[in-house]
Amino acid sequence: QVQLVESGGGLVQPGGSLKLACAASGTIFSIEVMGWYRQAPGKQRELVAAITRGGSTNYADPVKGRFTISRDNAKNTVYLQMNMLKPEDTAVYYCKAGIYPTITYYNDYWGQGTQVTVSS
């Protein structure tokens, strides 16, 4: 059984920073793409950033230059460093990972979400 557990959300003022972490645990053969999504009230869930096992990254336009995604393959953990936060970044942030629990089985797994609120 695979679990993703996020941490690091909270309340921050505009212009501030937060760092999210998502750790995968359980029976894991390998982890391919890891990413962060967010969902604001009344809006659809959207991709924020993603990173491959080899370190290639992809960012949504609204966060380019402000957010940085990274991962520690040895710890099965992905991070999202968020700088220069804006009120429009307020959302529940979800971690997603494409995981092979075994060599022959692949599935996408989601974390439970962590609230990020940017407000003065």
Helical coverage, percent range: under 10%
SSE-based structural type: mainly beta
The amount of beta strand, in percent, is over 45%
Count every helix, treating DSSP H or I runs of 4 or more residues as helices: 0
Low-confidence stretches: none
Count of DSSP strands: 11
Largest sheet: 7 strands, mixed
Global shape: elongated
Q: Secondary-structure element order, as H and E?
A: EEEEEEEEEEE
List the helices and strands and how they pair.
Elements: E1 2-7, E2 10-12, E3 18-26, E4 30-39, E5 46-51, E6 57-59, E7 67-72, E8 77-82, E9 91-102, E10 105-110, E11 114-118
Parallel strand pairs: 2-11
Antiparallel strand pairs: 1-3, 3-8, 4-5, 4-9, 5-6, 7-8, 9-10, 9-11
Overview features:
120 residues, mainly beta, seven-stranded mixed sheet, four-stranded antiparallel sheet, 60% strand
Explain what the structure shows.
This protein starts with a strand and ends with a strand. The chain has strands spanning 2-7, 10-12, 18-26, 30-39, 46-51, 57-59, 67-72, 77-82, 91-102, 105-110, 114-118. Strands 2, 4, 5, 6, 9, 10 and 11 form a 7-stranded mixed sheet that branches. Strands 1-3-8-7 form a 4-stranded antiparallel sheet, with no helix packed on it. The protein has 120 residues and is an all-beta fold. The model has no long low-confidence stretch (mean pLDDT 97).
A few lines on this structure:
The protein has strands at 2-7, 10-12, 18-26, 30-39, 46-51, 57-59, 67-72, 77-82, 91-102, 105-110, 114-118. The protein is an all-beta fold and 120 residues long.
